[in-house]
Every structure is written in C-alpha cells, then in structure tokens.
C-alpha cells in the first residue's frame, strides 16, 4: 500500500509539469502581443517597455518559464494586474471557501446519491424505482447555475429562509451545496443502483438468502458493501467535477472562492490571476483523483496489485 | 446495408419515449431554422416603455430589461445555442474519429502520445477545460465552439479507438487484408462505418452536455456578445432583474433543461433500438 502511494506520487510529477506548462503558455497563446493585453488603454510606449520588463516578457520563452516556475516554488504567484495585490494572498483568502463548498457538496451528493440508489435498487421494477430514476435524469439535465438561481428565487427571495448570497454563516452554504451536488447525486445514484442490482444477482447473495438472513441485512451489509467499489471510483472521478461545479455556483451565489476569482479574472483579462486560479484548480483535480485512487486501492486489494 | 441501418432509427422513433422526444427536437430545430420568420418581433427591438413586463397576450413570454420580446429572443437564442453546440460537437466528432481511428489502427508511439493527452484531459471537468481555452482564445462564439470541441475531443477519440481496436481483430477485416486491400480502404470502407453507430449516439448525448456548457459559458458573459441572444447570455443579463422579472431567467433555463432531457431520451431510444449499450459502456 505504501509503495502504491509512492508510485502514484511519482507519477504526479510529469503531470504537474505538463499542466504548469499549459497554464504558463496561456498568456503567450492569447492572440496578439501579451503586452497589449496587459496594458491599459492610453499607456505610452515608455510604459510599454516598463511592463515588458516587469513581467519579464523581453526574455526568451524558456527563460520566462524557468523564472515563473522558480517563483512558483517559493510561493510567489505574481501580482494581479487589476486588483494590484499579490495573487498568492488573493488565492489564500478565497481557497478555504471553495474547499468548504466542494467538500460539503461532495458529502451531500455521496450520501443522497447512495441512499437514492439503494432505495431504487431495493424496489427494482416498481413505481418508486421509476420515480427515482426519473428524478435522477431530471437532476442530471438541469444546468447547475440555473438550479442555483431557481433556489435563490424560491428559498431566499420568496420564502426568505436563507441569505441570498455571500458566505456568512452556515445557512448561506445550504443552497450552493444543493446546487453543486445535484449533478453528482444523479451519477452516484445511477451507479449505486446498477451495481446493487448486478451484485444482488450473484451466487453468494443467493446463499445468504438460503442461510435465512433478512433481506434488509443482506442489502445493507453485503450487497451495498460490494456495490460501493464502483461508487467510490465514480466519486473519485467526481472530485474534479465537483470542483468544476463550484466554479459556476460560486459565481451565481456571489460567494468568495477560486471560481468567482477565475471568472472575474477572465472577464477583466487579468492573466496572472487567471493563470494562478487555473493552476490551483488543476492541482486540486489531480490531487482529488489521487486521493480517490488511494481510497479505491485501500478498499479493493486487486487495484493496488494489478496497476503500477 | 443501408436499408438495414435505417431500421433501428425507425424503431427508435416508433417507441413512445422516442416519438415524443423526436417530435420536440424536430419542433426545436424547425424553430431555430425559421427563427426570423417565426419570431413575433425582431429580437433586438427595444421599447423602454414596456420594460420587464410579465407574460401577456401581446408578449407571450414577457419582456426583458430593454423591453425586448422574450419569446423572440428565445427563438433566436435556440438558433445560437443549437448551432454552437452542434457545430462544436460536429468538429469534435470528426477530429475524434480521425484521431481515434489512427490510434486504434496504427498503434505504436503515436497512439501512446495521443492517449497521454486524452488521459490527461479525461480527469478534468469540461467546464474547466473550456474556461482554460476561452482564456486563450478570448470570449465570443468562435472561442466557445472551439472550447467545447476540444473539451469533448478525448471522449470521442477514446470511443473510436476502442471500436477500431475491437473491429481490427475481426475475421472479415483479416479477409479484406488477405484480399490485398490497402490501409485507407480498410479504414474508411470497413472499420469506420462499423464504428460509427456508437460514436454518433455518444455525440447526440454529448450535444446535450454541450448545450449546458454553452449556456454556462454564456451565463459567465464569455459566449455570445450582446445583442445576439443565446439561452445562456439571456440568463446572464437577466440575473440583475431576477427579483423583478424572473421569467427572463426561468424560461431559457427551462428550454435548456427540456432540450437536454429530450436529447437524452431520444439517444436512449436509439441505444435500445440499436442494441449498443455494451459497446458504449466499454469505452
């Protein structure tokens, strides 16, 4: 197990370099001269040279990457052009909000999704199964930002139960968590349902029935335990998706976080900020997938032996 | 061969789910195609004396913050949203078919390099890939088309590759090789036509996701630029009026959700009719 984790960690190094290279190149792939994008309207040519020197744009690409990377290693993510503050500080202030929302949403979609999947599988072929499957389809097709707006309209504006936006207190977390998690529920429930139905057809389940165990015990203690392996796999993949979802939802609820920071940066063409946000989100996705892999390997010994 | 192919399509339309979904999609495509003639008002006609009016007989879906007719904007928006998603997925499928077929058929170092790229993008949510690309290309419809196309490329490449690899081992391909057929003939006349069905169904399901992605990018203000309406852009400008004129946001969102549901139902009916569920799950 220890060796497995080390191997996975080593595999992360090339991935990190490729991702960092892509993120670094963003500012250079933008059509036109990056300096034009960095300058505000009405800047003189003297300011132009100054900006080029400030961002190191007068040096070669490889040199620039090296400088950017070595600064990154010391935690210096550059300075936001529009807000004029260190990007590192902006990220540090916003990251906890994103982690809070992402974690809560993941937990919410896992618990609700598994419950819905178990219910649908236990009542396979009945109206309840059809109803849950229908709701699942509905949940996976509604755009999450629209659901967020709908929730704001009903629960915050009309009913006034929760704050409309922002991040003050735990009540402001309820609607964003639901809006982010719904897409995940659909996926988790679908996988749980199919895995439960397929497991229930296996021979050992018939033996358990023959032994005289109650159906409830068989479903929850034996079938669910087997069915959870693919569910955890999906959830591991979903960690990245939940993070992607938080980007949208943060913007809708005007919550601080990496997502709102990224969207604002994109709209204002604040490239150092965009680069840093994308790098952080990409790293979060990669680390999330790694954690998922490790959890999966811990649950299923075959995983850690077969794969490098 | 052709006649046999057409049968599952008819069978899909004949099923209850398939026929309802098919009708809706036909209705939507018709609306999008004939948008200029179907809209009761020009989509950009402003009238500030009737700002934020609720739905009424003269404006069936109400008006927005500039007094523009929401129904007309919805119809023209369908045109933008559909053409963007369909073009993007079309580009993605074509490139995916070529890349995937080359990978699956020739293998080797080329296959390995492409698969590293595919695996790398695979774990990232499409919205993040799309945002990264929009950051590079810049906001606007062209950027969105390209971003969506690249975001889904990995999926189609992988699906085509798996199909071609499976088919490559079949006896009929071996027979064709023994008859002296060249690579091009085998690929285009034998492998790709047989690999096409699962890819096209996956493309249909992906179009639904692409509509959501387009709406999301539009909502961020990164898609269609005003005054061009798209469902996402309508919701973006409608956020400020959420409390006074909720219909400006509710209706486009409903349109997105309905379209995606019916695309899924229709795709599902075709999957059942073609009996390719296992093929889709393999990839």
From TrEMBL, chain A:
One Gene Ontology cellular component annotation held by this UniProt entry: plasma membrane
Q: Per its UniProt entry, which superkingdom is the organism in?
A: Bacteria
Query: What terms describe the molecular function in GO for this protein?
Result: dipeptide transmembrane transporter activity
Q: How does it sit in the membrane?
A: Multi-pass membrane protein
PROSITE patterns named among the record's database cross-references:
ABC_TM1
Segments spanning the bilayer are 9-30, 103-123, 135-161, 173-192, 227-253, 273-295
Question: Which ranges carry the ABC transmembrane type-1 domain?
Answer: 95-292
Localization: Cell membrane
Keyword entries, A-Z: Cell membrane, Membrane, Transmembrane, Transmembrane helix, Transport
Q: What is this protein called?
A: Peptide/nickel transport system permease protein
User: What's the family?
Assistant: Belongs to the binding-protein-dependent transport system permease family.
Q: Which InterPro entries match?
A: BPD_transp_1_N, MetI-like, MetI-like_sf
Q: Does the keyword Transport apply?
A: yes
UniProtKB/TrEMBL annotation, chain B:
Q: How does it sit in the membrane?
A: Multi-pass membrane protein
The organism of origin for this protein: Phyllobacterium myrsinacearum
Its annotated function is as follows: Part of the ABC transporter complex GsiABCD involved in glutathione import. Probably responsible for the translocation of the substrate across the membrane.
Where, subcellularly, is it found?
Cell membrane
Q: What is its main location?
A: membrane
Q: Is Zinc among this UniProt entry's keywords? A: no
> What residue ranges are annotated as transmembrane?
20-38, 82-107, 127-153, 195-224, 244-271
A Pfam family that this protein carries is: BPD_transp_1
Family, per the entry? Belongs to the binding-protein-dependent transport system permease family.
SUPFAM superfamilies this protein is in?
MetI-like
Query: Could you identify this protein by its name?
Result: Glutathione transport system permease protein GsiD
Please list the residue ranges annotated as the ABC transmembrane type-1 domain: 78-267
Keywords associated with the record? Cell membrane, Membrane, Transmembrane, Transmembrane helix, Transport
Instruction: Report if keyword Isomerase is assigned.
Output: no
GO cellular component terms, alphabetically, are: plasma membrane
Q: Name one GO molecular function term.
A: dipeptide transmembrane transporter activity
């Amino acid at each position: 197990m220890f060796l497995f984790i080390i191997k996975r960690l080593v595999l992360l190094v090339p991935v990190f370099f490729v991702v960092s290279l892509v993120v670094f190149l963003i500012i250079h792939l933008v059509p036109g001269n990056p300096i034009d994008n960095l300058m505000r309207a009405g800047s003189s040519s003297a300011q132009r040279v100054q900006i080029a020197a400030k961002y190191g744009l007068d040096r070669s690409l490889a040199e620039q990457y090296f400088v950017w990377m070595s600064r990154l290693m010391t935690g210096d993510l550059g300075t936001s052009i529009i807000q004029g503050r260190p990007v590192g500080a902006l990220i540090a202030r916003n990251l906890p909000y994103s982690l809070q929302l992402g974690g809560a949403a993941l937990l919410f979609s896992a618990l609700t999704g598994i419950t819905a999947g178990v219910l649908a599988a236990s009542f396979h072929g009945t109206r309840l199964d059809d109803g849950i499957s229908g709701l699942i389809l509905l949940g996976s097709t509604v755009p999450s930002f629209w659901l967020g707006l709908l929730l704001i309209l009903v629960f915050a504006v009309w009913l006034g139960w929760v704050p409309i936006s922002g991040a003050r207190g735990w009540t402001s977390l309820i609607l964003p968590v639901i809006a982010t998690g719904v897409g995940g529920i659909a996926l988790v429930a679908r996988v749980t349902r199919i895995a439960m139905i397929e497991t229930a057809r296996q021979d050992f389940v018939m033996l358990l029935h023959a032994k005289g165990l109650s159906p409830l015990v068989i479903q929850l203690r034996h079938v669910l335990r087997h069915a959870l392996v693919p569910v955890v796999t999906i959830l591991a993949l979903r960690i990245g998706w939940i993070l992607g979802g938080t980007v949208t939802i943060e913007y809708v609820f005007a919550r601080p976080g990496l997502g709102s920071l990224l969207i604002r940066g994109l709209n204002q063409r604040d490239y150092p900020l965009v680069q840093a946000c994308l790098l952080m989100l990409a790293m979060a996705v990669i680390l999330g997938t790694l954690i998922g892999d490790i959890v999966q390997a811990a649950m299923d010994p075959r995983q850690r032996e077969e794969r490098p | 061969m052709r006649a046999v192919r057409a049968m599952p399509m008819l069978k899909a339309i004949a099923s209850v789910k398939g026929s309802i979904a098919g009708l809706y999609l036909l209705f939507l495509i018709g609306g999008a195609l004939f948008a200029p003639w179907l809209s009761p008002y020009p989509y950009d006609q402003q009238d500030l004396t009737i700002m934020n009016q609720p739905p009424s007989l003269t404006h069936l879906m109400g008006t927005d913050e500039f007094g523009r007719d929401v129904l007309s904007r919805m119809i023209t928006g369908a045109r933008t949203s559909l053409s963007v998603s369909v073009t993007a997925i079309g580009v993605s499928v074509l490139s995916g078919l070529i890349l995937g077929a080359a990978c699956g058929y020739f293998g080797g170092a080329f296959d390995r390099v492409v698969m590293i790229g595919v695996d790398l993008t695979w774990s990232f949510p499409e919205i993040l890939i799309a945002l990264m690309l929009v950051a590079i290309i810049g906001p606007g419809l062209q950027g969105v088309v390209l971003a969506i196309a690249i975001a889904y490329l990995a999926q189609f490449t992988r699906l085509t590759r798996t199909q071609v690899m499976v088919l490559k081992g079949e006896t009929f391909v071996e027979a064709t090789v023994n008859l002296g057929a060249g690579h091009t003939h085998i690929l285009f006349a034998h492998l790709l036509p047989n690999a096409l069905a699962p890819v096209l169904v996956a493309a249909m399901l992906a179009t639904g996701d692409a509509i959501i992605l387009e709406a999301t990018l539009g909502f961020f203000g990164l898609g269609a630029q005003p005054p061009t309406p798209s469902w996402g852009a309508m919701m973006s400008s409608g956020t400020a009026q959420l409390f006074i004129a909720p219909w400006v946001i509710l209706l486009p969102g409903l349109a997105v959700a309905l379209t995606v549901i019916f695309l899924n139902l229709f795709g599902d009916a075709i999957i059942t009719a073609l009996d390719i569920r296992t093929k889709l799950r393999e990839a």
